[in-house]
Amino acid sequence: MKLTVVSPLISDDFTEGVRKEVEHWLGPDTDVEVVRIQRGPASIESEYDEALAGPGILEEVVKAAEGGAEAVFITCFGDPAVHAAREVVDVPVVGGFEPAVLHALALGEHVGIVTVLPNVVPMIRSLIRRYGFTDRVGSVRVVDMPVLTLHDPDTLLTRLHEQAKAAVDADEAQVIVLGCTGMIGVAASLQERLAAEGTFIPVIDPTGAALLWLESQVRLGVRPSRATYLPPPAKKRIP
Amino acid sequence: MKLTVVSPLISDDFTEGVRKEVEHWLGPDTDVEVVRIQRGPASIESEYDEALAGPGILEEVVKAAEGGAEAVFITCFGDPAVHAAREVVDVPVVGGFEPAVLHALALGEHVGIVTVLPNVVPMIRSLIRRYGFTDRVGSVRVVDMPVLTLHDPDTLLTRLHEQAKAAVDADEAQVIVLGCTGMIGVAASLQERLAAEGTFIPVIDPTGAALLWLESQVRLGVRPSRATYLPPPAKKRIP
Amino acid sequence: MKLTVVSPLISDDFTEGVRKEVEHWLGPDTDVEVVRIQRGPASIESEYDEALAGPGILEEVVKAAEGGAEAVFITCFGDPAVHAAREVVDVPVVGGFEPAVLHALALGEHVGIVTVLPNVVPMIRSLIRRYGFTDRVGSVRVVDMPVLTLHDPDTLLTRLHEQAKAAVDADEAQVIVLGCTGMIGVAASLQERLAAEGTFIPVIDPTGAALLWLESQVRLGVRPSRATYLPPPAKKRIP
Amino acid sequence: MKLTVVSPLISDDFTEGVRKEVEHWLGPDTDVEVVRIQRGPASIESEYDEALAGPGILEEVVKAAEGGAEAVFITCFGDPAVHAAREVVDVPVVGGFEPAVLHALALGEHVGIVTVLPNVVPMIRSLIRRYGFTDRVGSVRVVDMPVLTLHDPDTLLTRLHEQAKAAVDADEAQVIVLGCTGMIGVAASLQERLAAEGTFIPVIDPTGAALLWLESQVRLGVRPSRATYLPPPAKKRIP
Amino acid sequence: MKLTVVSPLISDDFTEGVRKEVEHWLGPDTDVEVVRIQRGPASIESEYDEALAGPGILEEVVKAAEGGAEAVFITCFGDPAVHAAREVVDVPVVGGFEPAVLHALALGEHVGIVTVLPNVVPMIRSLIRRYGFTDRVGSVRVVDMPVLTLHDPDTLLTRLHEQAKAAVDADEAQVIVLGCTGMIGVAASLQERLAAEGTFIPVIDPTGAALLWLESQVRLGVRPSRATYLPPPAKKRIP
Amino acid sequence: MKLTVVSPLISDDFTEGVRKEVEHWLGPDTDVEVVRIQRGPASIESEYDEALAGPGILEEVVKAAEGGAEAVFITCFGDPAVHAAREVVDVPVVGGFEPAVLHALALGEHVGIVTVLPNVVPMIRSLIRRYGFTDRVGSVRVVDMPVLTLHDPDTLLTRLHEQAKAAVDADEAQVIVLGCTGMIGVAASLQERLAAEGTFIPVIDPTGAALLWLESQVRLGVRPSRATYLPPPAKKRIP
């Protein structure tokens, strides 16, 4: 199976981190390529950043499909350009939010998300409403760390634990989703730390969830519906 | 009052049509400027087109605010880049969907939208869920005409009437919203034609609704909340 | 444009206050008449008061329409007799709740209402459900001051600020609506006081919102749908 | 047990019919008094009629409670003044809608209402939203007969059967509620006629449902919550 | 009228307590039989216990109907096997949850449930969603006492009061439902204790609510819809 | 990885069919065991059948976990005893409904289910509400074939195609889920047949979806939350 991961950021550093993480999740039969956009933001922390990254993401998704990718992961929790991408290619495409939350929904009653900054909370709540998940997903908390500081795993883990615990204690959530695909390699540790306090709380890593989701879609032989994602009519478009 | 209208299309023709339409709605005290994006699609008929138009729209919105605009109308029913724009400027910004539907909600129980093509129906239904209006807005129908053919008012009016009447007769809607800001100058005629059949059904023109909405916001002294639309953190961004 | 404001109270004092407030919001081209009911309560602070005021309100609305009013504002946040009035006249009619909340919905994700007494909170929450706004409007708080004591602007402003701040700090709301049309002349000051603490939070004055809403409806050439508001069948009625 | 039935109509004829019907449902231990309002409409077929009946209904409810009534039924499907009445008396009060629909909810998945005229359909749908029942109650159909013609049981039964059958066949509803308390003495026949076609469909008579509901409330020792229905503050009120 | 109460527990002690309680609620004309299952759990405190009790409950319900019971009450707040039972008999069947909550919905805006252990809270919240009551029923609290310790009325009452008061004070609920049919004989005392603090809060006893509900259904001449509860096709089944 | 499939039926024939189907979906590294219950129904076509199968399913799930299974699939679309099972074992457990519908939600806007008989439609709609998916899953249609006749693939495929096409044409659904785990080996053919008519509509096979779902859960290192699924308290239980 051939998968492409599109990083919606202009930084090569992040691309490198993603490459390592991706290999952790996939089997030996899956061939992954990680690419990044050429124009756009250094990180996504607002709807503004999402909009700037849009055209670049779509360019890379189309290139990937033309190059034979059987599935594409746009590695950002805000699902930027995901629905647009489904209109223009004939393979499964997901972002970080949708597969992580769908996985979480089968693990407990209420799903809580812990993300980076207050800036993206309204965007995430808009996604929850857009996808129709308000009955089951309500709690959105923040570690209050910009994306570009997430490489410090100790601080990140401490703050994730604080917020996850608070959400569970207040009975806001019984399952935790990490709300940023830049929170790499901490899900298992957080899950362990929470369990050590007495109650097993599953923690979903959005990168792992997305990659296994795409593998499943390919193995199930499905891809997005053309009755929801119609091909855009031909017309003049200036890139 | 100084207003800017941003057309998310690369065509000067449409910009001209908008300019005339806009003058029809505003009073002599309001000074309007109509601008268009430089890169993007010739028309918006998909989430793909919306994403391509995003960076250009934001560039024009920022320029407008810097140039003293007191409010900005992004003239597209899909509300492209509207929420992103609210993050980066300190003046009211609306697209076509939100003010038209909000106006309609005070006129009858259920609101029906008649738009251009099947391609944009899922996008519009996503907006309905995102804004939380599913209890009151359900019917989305199409005239099945591409945006660039809307300049034929007779065909447009005939098909709008067909679809609006069908929505009302099936009790899907008691108020009609025109679901494309390119449907210019037909709302009043459609309203008249429907009334001639015995029951007054209000028809909302999204351009008029948006412009009067912005005038009201300015006169009320309000603008988008900074607790929902936080300013994007400073960072490297390649345009 | 000719507008009528109907005060659902039997007090001339309040009518005077309304008259001054109304002139503050409207342009020189709009001609306003303020009238009051002859039978009913001294203030509206319960569903009981609303019901008592109903017949008097309808009498005044009908008289206004017969006298040439192009739009009618029933100046009470509980929207008393608003839907009944739309059945019997052919011009736009609004109360205080609907236009204020609709305006607020375009300014931020969640709308919070600060009203007078605990007595009216269930009535307001019933309106929120009736209008289908539960996904976006949840917080209803009180200053705990009877309507007839609202003329003390300092106490009112202090308590409004306390409650609005509490709603924003608890992330219940990012936009504030004043939940009583008797809270006159304080919206701008409250907005300023909240902004002075660091984050701009828009505050909607229900009187201003209603008047500009009606102006917009008249300029858009619309009025309530006769498919929702059917004319009541003729029959014997003892006033 | 002492019950009062308040007819919100100015006609003695209807009061007589109600008296007979009421006796059919109650046991020998229950003492019923049927009263009517002095000012208001001859029938309720609009929100306008409801508003006109309001003060008269409240006057009778208060009088009944003062006279020792242990529960009050306001015999109209629109639940006029029901919530206002609960604020001013200390005994259970219901209208026609609430107990009929609550009874029906325990009998099948979706509840369908068949009422008199298109005029009251939006009012009934507003009640459904107000009470929060939209997930289970959706279908509202009409026999298209004014209230004052309902005394013709053959036509009424034929049309009720037509509409109930249509609702069941379209899978809109599996339980039927008669949507007017003036549809007297036909529920059992309709239920029989539907069952004769092969599938048992329960039919709820709103008068019977309301009376047994009140009996149950009294026997359970409960009455409306004073945390929802606060007593209206004392003030000047001109009747 | 002949009613059967099915206890889904294997203990004779509980059956005895139920018998006494049941007689408290019903009139002299109603003849009640209390039976219990032969295989299953000693108490129901999980979905696991519910599933174990299922076949035994259904056996007793069928036996009761064959023996002439006109209505059946499965005395457990989790409504175990209730919907299955409605498929196989032609008489009204209820559990503890549905009639208690439906009764409560007519007494105030928001209903709060106080149940036994945290273990059953997700099950109760699943029922709330299944029945479509999320807009009106949200608060589920626990006294943290296993079912088999409920016979200590003092501790039970103290803890119920604590939790009910907390729900009311936090404005989570204005009506209280006892969330276990094993909480026998305390509803009236709890209601009194709450009222003594100043505000009347109705408290629903699920056993009383269920019994009176069934009496009403029988008197109204209705039973569950065969369009929702279809008879199971004949086939091999090993008990 | 070691997986157990529990068939909630007493028939060895069905167990054989499941075994073949299961091998089709899983990789060579996954070791599957298929077991069946000893007491219960020959097929599940009602809530009654579900309840009868409950204790047997739980017995097999517990045995499987004790025997080292890392995940368990209860192969029935009604998710019988799934939530109960999660309370008693420490490994992922799913039925047919949940993973199929969650997979489908990422493939298009609205999900339609085509199941066997009208008898199970209310049960499936109850699951939709219980899981909180009403905004996205609405259409439930039937091929009107009992489970034990599904072995005729031609008739089954013809009727599935009829119903799936009807759902898509009526715009009820853009993604199809097969609503019975006994519909084996037809999903791909149905998907092909629908695509041949011009529009690609994904079709989800519930068995494949469930197995890949469990594989993903195991690879992600997660299992159901103990804050939702608490271990049942110890007590006397008669099997």
Task: Please specify the SSE layout and strand pairing.
Six copies of one chain form a homohexamer.
Chain A: E1 2-7, H1 12-25, E2 31-36, E3 40-41, H2 47-66, E4 71-74, H3 82-88, E5 93-94, H4 97-105, E6 111-115, H5 121-131, E7 137-142, H6 153-169, E8 175-178, H7 187-195, E9 203-204, H8 206-220, E10 237-238
Parallel strand pairs in A: 1-2, 1-4, 4-5, 6-7, 6-8, 8-9
Helix pairs in contact in A: 1-8, 4-8, 6-7
Family (chains A, B, C, D, E, F): Belongs to the HyuE racemase family.
Protein name (chains A, B, C, D, E, F): Hydrogenase expression protein HupH
GO molecular function (chains A, B, C, D, E, F): amino-acid racemase activity
Write a structural description.
- 6 copies of one chain form a homohexamer.
- Chain A folds into 2 domains: 2-96 and 208-220, Rossmann fold, CATH 3.40.50; 97-206, 3-Layer(aba) Sandwich (Rossmann fold), CATH 3.40.50.
- The two termini of chain A are 31 Å apart.
- In chain A, the strands form 2 sheets. Chain A has a 4-stranded parallel beta sheet with strand order 2-1-4-5, sandwiched between helices. In chain A, strands 7-6-8-9 form a 4-stranded parallel beta sheet, with helices on both faces.
- The first copy, chain A, is an alpha/beta fold and 239 residues long.
- Helix content of chain A is 43%, strand content 16%.
- Chains in contact: A-B, A-C, A-E, A-F, B-C, B-D, B-F, C-D, C-E, D-E, D-F, E-F.
- Chains A and F meet through α4, β9 and α8 of A and α4, β9 and α8 of F.
- Chains A, B, C, D, E, F: GO terms for molecular function: amino-acid racemase activity.
- Chains A, B, C, D, E, F: InterPro entries: Asp/Glu/hydantoin_racemase (IPR015942), Hydantoin_racemase-like (IPR052186), Iso_Racemase_Enz_sf (IPR053714).
- Chains A, B, C, D, E, F: Belongs to the HyuE racemase family.
- Chains A, B, C, D, E, F: This is Hydrogenase expression protein HupH.
